[in-house]
Amino acid sequence: MNGLSTVLIVVGLFFVGGIISFVKQKMPTSLVVLLSIGAVLCVGTGLLYLEV
Question: In angstroms, rounded to a whole number, what is the distance separating the alpha carbons of residues 46 and 7?
Answer without folding.
Answer: 8
